């Protein structure tokens, strides 16, 4: 059944071409959509991190401050980060252990940048409960977590203890031979 009343006439010019009324509907909808976006934007924008948080998102570090065989603890995003200048013996031991049985197998070359194998940058928190491990403990020559006995090798890979994962390697890139950007 048709909805038109008996005797009603349809305007052939009004039925297919947009009229003034259609233009007003479209304009009103466009203004309403723009107004809704203008009201919603501050709520969406407030979810972005603040400027001081973004400023701490990445740090630059001069690696010349770290002598061979030593490490520096850098604070990044409120947590410790180990920047270690490994000796040739430490690197050789880490590479030799690439095929050893590990909980979280990962090659040493995957944990360092190509051509910069002496620089190991890892998170300074044990992956078990977040304690700060110390270097030089344990039978693998790497880090030892005194809280629950997790032992990491010279590449920061978990070798023994309750920790389930290797020490975290953050995202980083060398800006030059002496400067690294972390984050």
Q: Report the order of strands and helices.
A: HHHEEEHEEEEEEE
What is the count of β-strands?
Answer: 10
State the end-to-end CA separation: 68 Å
Q: Look at the helices and sheets and give the structural class.
A: alpha+beta
Function: Component of the ubiquinol-cytochrome c reductase complex (complex III or cytochrome b-c1 complex), which is a respiratory chain that generates an electrochemical potential coupled to ATP synthesis.
Transmembrane segments: 23-44
Domain Rieske: 86-181
EC number: 7.1.1.8
Polypeptide structure, described:
The strands form three sheets. The chain has a four-stranded antiparallel β-sheet, with no helix packed on it. The protein has a three-stranded antiparallel β-sheet with strand order 1-10-9, with no helix packed on it. 25% of the residues lie in helices and 22% in strands. The termini are far apart. It is of the alpha+beta class and 183 residues long.
What are the SSEs and their pairings?
Layout: H1 12-16, H2 20-45, H3 51-55, E1 59-62, E2 71-76, E3 79-85, H4 88-96, E4 119-123, E5 134-135, E6 141-144, E7 151-153, E8 158-160, E9 172-174, E10 179-182
Antiparallel strand pairs: 1-10, 2-3, 3-4, 5-6, 6-7, 7-8, 9-10
């Amino acid at each position: 059944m048709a909805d038109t009343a008996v005797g009603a006439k349809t305007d052939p010019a009004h039925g297919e071409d947009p009229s003034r009324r259609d233009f007003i509907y479209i304009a009103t909808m466009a203004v309403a959509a723009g107004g809704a976006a203008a009201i919603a934007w501050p709520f969406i924008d407030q979810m972005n991190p603040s400027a001081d948080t973004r400023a701490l998102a990445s740090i630059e570090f001069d690696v010349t401050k770290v002598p061979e065989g030593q490490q520096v603890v850098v604070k990044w995003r409120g947590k410790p980060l180990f920047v270690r200048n490994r000796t040739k013996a430490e690197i050789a031991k880490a590479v030799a252990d690439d095929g050893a049985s590990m909980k979280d197998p990962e090659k040493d070359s995957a944990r360092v940048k190509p051509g910069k194998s002496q620089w190991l940058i890892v998170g300074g928190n044990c992956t078990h409960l977040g304690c700060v491990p110390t270097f030089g403990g344990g039978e693998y020559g790497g880090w030892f977590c005194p809280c629950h006995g997790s032992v990491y090798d010279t590449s920061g890979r978990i070798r023994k203890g309750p920790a389930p994962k290797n020490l975290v390697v953050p995202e980083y890139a060398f800006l030059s031979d002496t400067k690294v950007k972390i984050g």
